Amino acid sequence: MVPFITASDIKKVEQETIIEQHISSLNLMERAAKVCFENIQSDYPLIQSVLIVASVGNNGGDGLAIATMLSNINISVDLYIMGEPMLKASDEFKANFNSVRNNNQIHFVFDIKENKKYDVVIDALFGIGFKKRRNIILDDIIDQINNFKCPIISIDLPSGMVADDFEQNQKCIKATITYTFQVNKLCFAYSPNYRYLGKLKVLDIQLSPTAIKKYSSYFYSYCQNGIKDIYKPREFHSHKGLFGHSLIIGGQTGMSGAVNFASIGALHSGVGLLTTWLPKNIQTIFHTHVLEGMSKTPTQSTNQDFLSEFPDQEFIKKHKITGIAIGMGMGTNVETEEALNAWLQKKYSCPIIIDADAITIFSKNIKLLEIGNKFIFTPHPKEWERLGNKGLPFTNFQHCMDTAKRMAQKYNIFIHLKNSISLTFTPSGDIFAWLHPLPYLAKGGSGDVLSGVLAGLMSQGYESLHAIFLSQYLIYQSVQITAASKKESVESFLPHQITNNFGQAFISLLRKSSYE
Q: Which of 84, 160, 325, 374 is positioned for an S-S bond with 353, CB 3.0–4.6 A?
């Protein structure tokens, strides 16, 4: 887990690291610059010419140190400095500036409007210390940098971005890649900021683990590497009865795709058995697409186009259901709402994923949250506006965060807020972010697959938070494999393809083959 820490607390972590490790702030700056330099070599091994744009603060000091390291391997470096180096500069900047000034291979430029081509531009203007303020000179420099037709690397943060603010409303560098140091900044949690952050890499500069833990609070991102500790490999001698029975509930005439996607997601998660509860009129369509699942239709209801009856406790007990997902493509007919309200009044021992139309029904009767079942809500932004924001737009992101955190704690539920940056709010008050945006998933149906995968994993005995982590990982890896094959574009990729590479995603979690 990588924590989100405020800018002021990051500075405290740095100071405590300096004291604990008996180093100077200049040593720490050189350490950070070296890690950036090594990543530049790895990410852009063929570059020959670089422009570094720096200010006179510590972020600029990082840029100067990187300039020296690049020039030492015979890369042509042009350096533009915004501000007067010897007036308001930090001591660390001055030390690195003296070194750069004596380096004949680093060339100072005084106008970055020059018509010169570079392989890479490095943005070392401002880091986490930047505050919101209007500056015409800075705006002009940001425009000039963004106009370069080459990769832009931002150090710690794209200049113009404020570390502790979710929403950015001023000009900002549009980085190709951002090298940030050791911990997450709060601004990383807001999806629209990735148009500026580009690819995000969190670089280890060996800040004090004790200090990081001291200033970490309740907000973390979960890493791909940690998923292997969650994953439960299967024994050689296994059978379907060991891996749970998922119940997927949803669908209506004209909306059969959603419940199909969820069912396929559950099957690909490895669940032992799957039953899908759906209206009679889409049963044939369902079995055309889902060959391995069973289906049940209401026996008492005369309506065959939508659900007005749900499986009772006797059905759930008889079939040993261990996980439920409800709402996908279900609709919000009056009969459906009334039947769901009655069904939810009963206690169920297995976890229940509340998705799509079921979320909308909850938003109309918020007292349903007080029932106390093991609920996991999986809203997308518009569904969250109805359920938690009470009509306020999702763009009021601080309000979204505060409300979701409060609701998860108050009602003892999990809320997994689906977006390009997904956020999970827990009953304990912790928040977890998945910082791996995938534009391939920006289509209706992707969330239905996620709900099915979640139900399948929880049916197999994964606890709620681990099931959420693992489902995000499997989907991410599977889609990345498709992306790497270059057989689909972000436009052409469809939700039914999400699980195509789940096999390889699971195999990536094995420390060694369990079946050799």
A: 325
Neighbours of 297 (CB within 10 A): 17
**8-66: pLDDT as tens digits:** 999 999 999 999 999 999 999 999 999 999 999 999 999 999 999 998 889 999 999 99
User: Among all chains, which residue has been given the structure tokens 């833990």?
Assistant: 213
Mark residue 49 as left, alpha or beta (left: phi above 0; alpha: psi -120 to 50; beta: remaining): beta
Backbone angles phi and psi of 25, in degrees to 5: -65, -30
What CA–CA distance (Å, rounded) separates 413 from 423?
14
* Verdict on whether the full-model pTM lies above 0.70: yes
Contact 276, 290 (CB under 8 A): yes
Q: Identify which of 16, 42, 36, 218 has the alpha carbon closest to the alpha carbon of residue 127.
A: 36
Token duo for residue 148: 């370069």
Quote the tokens at residue 74: 């015979």
Question: What are the φ and ψ backbone dihedral angles of 385, each rounded to 5 degrees?
Answer: -55, -35
And the tokens for 336?
């459906």
How far, in Å, CA of 7 to CA of 197, rounded?
Answer: 17
Give the C-alpha separation, 327 to 343, whole Å: 13
Amino acid 366 reads I
Q: In one letter, which amino acid is 80? A: Y
Nearest residue to 27 (alpha-carbon basis) of 102, 91, 100, 123: 91
